[in-house]
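Supplementary notes for students who missed Thursday's class. We covered one full example, reproduced here. Read the sequence, then the structure, then the short commentary at the end.
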Amino acid sequence: MRLVSAFVPIWILTALGYAACRWGLLGETGASVLGRFVFHLAMPSALFLALSRMPLSGLAGRSLLAFGVSTAAVVGLGWVSASRLFGREPGERPIWGMAAGYVNSANLGIPIATQVLGDVAFLAEVVLLQVLVVTPVILVALDRHRDPAGRVRVRRIASLPVRNPVILASLLGVACSAAGLQLPSAANASLALLSGAAVPAALVALGASLHGTTSSRAEPAELAVITALKLVVQPVIAYAAGLAMHLSAPQLLAVVVCAGLPTAQNTFIFAQEYGVGETVANRAVMMTTTLSLATLAAVAALLG
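Structure (token representation):
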């Protein structure tokens, strides 16, 4: 029941977004506007506050390395599968990789880590790894494919942190954490209000996007592969890497549980912002979130 309680708010907010769009409460562009709000304002605020308060010493250790190995392997497998198995366009492949290997470390990760692991210490390291390493790689790839010629422009890539609010907020948060800086109370309170809207707005936007997308291409075979990579292959690789690195039983449980978290809704937000792979992204988020209740319970039972 404790695991179920972590999933219920996600299902409710997503269903509300779908219903609001179906009943015309959000207008024709409601999902798009909500997505842009999350990407440009709410998500950067949440990332800045989280990283500015997080000690950076956590980015070390065998546990994080084992998780990183599983993430790199599965993101790479998803990226290649999108091209080799399903003929996805280059701009869609980063979204495929992200859907396969980028875990929901925030609104699902925190309650699950608290209930299954007893604390969120390792999850904080996972957040840092995803935000500081995985997110920039995905966004650089998406930005490259937005270029009409599909070329890697050094000047454009170098300016990405300034042009992309997610990367900019993350870098500023890390800088504040490293320097021990604190914002004035008014600025901190304003960012806290914005960050509080990130998760619910993203879930409502996700639900709204599910309405009216039946004509878009999202093959069942694609969703099956993404779901298998996310919920089976990534935890198995994490387990194998953890064993190879001689992790203790609690460390191994933390690594496998975090690797088995479902696809983050950020995947859909990024897909929507760049206009690629939106249908695959929202279906993957919903499918993995629904099925991960069973797979995470199995992991907890086997390794707990």
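Commentary. Residues 121-146 form the longest helix (26 residues). The domain at 2-303 is CATH 1.20.1530.20 (Na+/H+ antiporter like fold). If anything here is unclear, bring it to office hours.
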